[in-house]
Specification:
The complex is a heterodimer of chains A (about 280) and B (about 325). Chain A is of the alpha/beta class and about 280 residues long. Chain A contains 9 helices and 11 strands. In chain A, strand 7, helix 5 and strand 8 form a beta-alpha-beta unit. The radius of gyration of chain A is 20 Å and the shape is globular. The chains are: A alpha/beta (about 280), B alpha/beta (about 325). The interface between A and B is large, with 68 and 62 residues.
Chain lengths: ~280, ~325
């Protein structure tokens, strides 16, 4: 071979380059630092299991509806049938769909927790995500617990068509009941939260917090710049932009997330546990 | 049997599915259609610029319409119109997405793509309907919510989310009519109702066929294939249960005869409102919840039987009052 492969200086299973500051980060150290860059504090994405471990009281999490998987309502086929795509994503990630739900305590506040995983088909919302969040909200209502949803999603799942769209109305029906029962709902937005997820439950928390630098926007980059025919300013649609425009309450760095959620839940706890006000 | 059927006490018949009466001349089974347009034909019919748009329908279906303008916060969005009118002498609140019938008009109406303030105007009118217990009728006809930077800056996603939430909890009867294009969240913001009807050639989808083709087939030219795969045409929506019934269009399509199309819409609306007005508010709310709760094809191997749904608060109230 005339041109040999360049020696791989940084094998990717050991090192990750920070896309923000270009620093080479040792993977083990990065994981220990909650997937936050040690140099510039860039927040890498975090899987759902790691996220749960990060925000709940140690050992308090019990998963619900773990076996729920998607059907194929449309018989959808593009380059391959939808059930095959699901099976491939399940094999790759070891999860059944793009969300994990369960009960836990956060700072000793009883909660129902739902955490989305972007790794599973872009965190897209189909009937499984819709059903698990709806059940989570219904459980929170029945047991008078707070609801915490951590979003990470590209939006509704195209392969489920209008059935995916209807999940938005289904979830919001349950959230409306939760709201009427004066139960707290904290929405956490992580990179990225877009489309139908942002246009439904993610935007409706009693308190909405986001991670630094998270992409949070309704339409895709290409759609938006396509309609105006020019490049958008940098930082458009990032968490900091939404904070400035008044659509989120706070930007919370990952190491403080658990403590911050606990603070709000404790503050709301008196009202949510006062049965005189629950119908 | 749907929840609404149980409440109104009507049984499923060959001609209709119960709560949608036969005399309204509605299509509740795809087999009732003489011809089933291909999905791509439906897409083109739904986008036909000559198709009756919201104002065409309002002018022919209702009497004494008075438009109400503005969101009380930012501006009056011309892509969403609304107001109060009479239907058979009874006042109703109307909200609809408005496309234009010409290029100039379409530019003025932003091609029926609402900004956040449009949805906030809609929400103001929803609350008005609830406050005075007037039935709410919405007309859906949009390619989607406006995706530009102004929309993002003013909270397009938040406005849509709040609209859907408000419709889900609104304590007054809601009838939704999809006139042409039902484009994703921008349509659902007007689309949560007790009864959801669609014109025969209307479409309803989570993303435009062009958008879907661009993402999954990596080519917008595959839109025709995408339209078929997405099952977005009237008969498909009927089979999926996304719409409750189709309103038949005149032969040749709605654009050939606005008057006949409006007459069919009027008959359907009058019949639905007559039924819905007899349902007590609490029952209406739980029926609406159950209607949307049921969506989703799922498999749950080895799961224990689902816990019984929590008792609705109004039933507990009734128990407390009677014990």
């Amino acid at each position: 071979m005339p041109f040999g492969r360049k020696p791989n200086e940084f094998p990717s299973h050991l090192w990750t380059q920070c896309p923000n500051c270009n620093e080479m980060l040792f993977n083990k150290q990065l994981a220990r630092n909650l997937n936050v860059c040690m140099k510039c504090e860039h927040h890498f994405r975090l899987g759902a299991r790691e996220r749960i471990e990060l925000i709940v009281d140690k050992g308090s999490f019990h998963e619900h509806d773990a076996s729920l998987t998607s059907g194929d309502p449309l018989g959808f086929v593009d380059s391959k049938p939808y059930p095959e795509r699901i099976a491939a994503a399940q094999t790759k990630s070891g999860e059944k769909d793009a969300i994990i739900t369960g009960e836990a305590t956060i700072g000793e506040n009883p909660v129902i927790l739902a955490v989305m995983d972007f790794e599973f088909m872009g965190g897209s919302m189909g009937a499984v995500v819709g059903e698990k969040i709806t059940r989570a909200a219904e459980r929170a209502l029945a047991e008078r617990r707070a609801l915490v949803i951590v979003s990470a999603s590209g939006g509704a799942r195209m392969q489920e068509g209008t059935i995916a769209l209807m999940q938005m109305a289904k979830i919001l029906g349950a959230l409306a009941r939760l709201d009427q029962a004066r139960l707290p709902y904290v929405s956490v937005l992580t990179d990225p939260t877009t489309g139908g997820v942002l246009a439904s439950y993610a935007s409706l928390g009693d308190v909405i917090v986001a991670e630094p630098g998270a992409l949070i926007r309704f339409s895709g980059e290409r759609v938006t710049s396509g309609t105006v025919g020019e490049k958008l300013p940098t930082g458009f649609g990032k968490a900091e932009f939404l904070l400035e425009r008044g659509f989120i309450d706070q930007i919370v760095p990952r190491p403080q997330l658990r403590e911050r959620i606990a603070f709000f839940l404790t503050a709301f706890r008196a009202a949510s546990q006062d049965l005189r006000w629950s119908l | 049997m749907s929840v609404l059927e149980r409440l109104t006490g009507t049984k499923r018949t060959v001609e209709g599915n119960g709560h949608l009466p036969v005399d309204a001349n509605l299509i509740t089974e795809p087999a009732q259609l003489a011809t089933r347009a291909s999905p791509w034909e439906a897409v083109q019919a739904a986008r036909n610029i000559q198709r009756p748009h919201t104002f065409d329908v309002i002018g022919r279906v209702f009497d004494r319409f008075h438009e109400l303008h503005g969101d009380r916060g930012f501006r009056d969005d011309p892509a969403i119109v609304g107001g109060i009118a009479d239907l058979d002498g009874r006042p109703v609140v109307i909200v609809g997405e408005q496309k234009g019938a010409s290029t100039e008009e379409n530019i003025a109406r932003n091609f029926g793509m609402p900004h956040p303030e449009g949805y906030r105007k809609a929400m103001r009118l929803y609350r008005l309907a609830e406050k005075f217990h007037l039935p709410l009728i919405t007309f859906v006809d949009t390619p989607g919510a406006y995706p530009g930077p102004e929309g993002e800056e003013r909270g397009q996603a938040e406005a849509i989310a709040q609209s859907i939430l408000l419709m889900a909890r609104l304590q007054t009867p809601i009838v939704v009519v999809i006139l042409g294009e039902g484009g994703s969240g921008g349509a659902l913001a007007l689309g949560v109702g007790d009864v959801v009807l669609a014109l025969e050639n209307a479409i309803y989808s989570v993303i435009s066929p062009e958008g879907c083709a661009a993402i999954l087939w990596r080519s917008p030219a595959e839109a025709e294939r995408a339209a078929k795969a997405m099952r977005l045409s009237g008969p498909d929506l009927l089979e999926l249960g996304v719409v409750d019934a189709l309103i038949p269009e005149p032969p040749g399509g709605a654009h050939t005869d606005h008057a006949a199309t409006a007459a069919a819409i009027r008959t359907a609306l009058a019949a639905q409102l007559a039924k819905l007005e007899r349902v007590p508010a609490a029952d209406l709310m739980s029926a609406r919840y159950e209607r949307f709760r049921a969506f989703g094809a799922l498999a749950e191997p080895g799961a224990p039987a689902p816990p019984p749904p929590p008792e609705p608060w109004w039933r507990r109230l009734v128990k407390r009052a009677t014990s």
